[in-house]
Design goal:
The protein is of the alpha/beta class and 196 residues long. It has five helices and nine strands, in the order αβαββββαββαβαβ. Strands 1, 2, 3, 4, 5, 6, 7, 8 and 9 form a nine-stranded mixed β-sheet that branches.
């Protein structure tokens, strides 16, 4: 019965996204340079590239005439859009909001989904104007148990998988690339590296 619910949820997510923008999903292991890739692509240091662990965060970057950031928490199997949190629309605002969230998932003291948040960021970036959306998901090692990562993979048009040069192409990277390929059969999977 839970498998049926999972399929229905994925189909609903896919249907919703058919009327949407081109989605570029950026993923990879913890501290592999995901935020750095997006910051480089948009030409601005918007997303936090902190070394310290923070709560698992998803970012959706959309074009917007005015800068706006709205955060949602994951509650009982979905993003709770009934209680949005308006975050100060600055890189510092993102960092300050994330610092208030629990870090228990990264420390192995709980389910990742109990402390997750999604930040919908509308920003006046020309690259995003022609109906393009960047999505960053947290550490891909959560993929097997993390429903939101699976949902984003369902409708991603392009997947950029980030690999840190400090540990290039680890077994974990290869395992997650295979899992991602199961979702992204018709999609392009690009692999980027960075110096660690």
């Amino acid at each position: 019965d839970s498998r049926k619910e999972d399929v229905v949820r994925r189909l609903e997510a896919a249907e919703k996204m058919l009327r949407r923008k081109l989605v570029v999903l950026v993923c990879g292991l913890l501290k592999s340079g995901k935020s750095s890739i997006i910051n480089s692509l948009i030409g601005e240091d918007l997303l936090d590239e902190a070394i310290l662990p923070t709560a698992p965060s998803f970012y959706e970057l959309h074009y917007g005439e005015e800068k706006k950031i709205i955060a949602y928490k994951w509650v009982k199997g979905h993003w709770d859009e009934s209680r949005p949190v308006f975050v100060k629309p600055t890189p510092e605002g993102i960092k300050e909001y994330k610092e208030k969230l629990p870090v228990t998932a990264f420390l192995g003291r709980g389910d990742i989904e109990t402390s997750m948040c999604k930040m919908v960021i509308c920003w006046p970036i020309e690259l995003l104007k022609p109906d393009l959306m960047f999505v960053e998901v947290p550490d891909t090692s959560y993929l097997p148990s993390c429903q939101p990562i699976k949902e984003y993979l369902t409708y991603a048009d392009v997947v950029i998988y980030s690999i840190s040069m400090s540990n290039p192409c680890s077994n974990r990277d290869m395992e997650y690339l295979r899992e991602i390929n199961d979702f992204a059969v018709d999609r392009i999977v690009s692999v980027f590296t960075r110096c660690g």
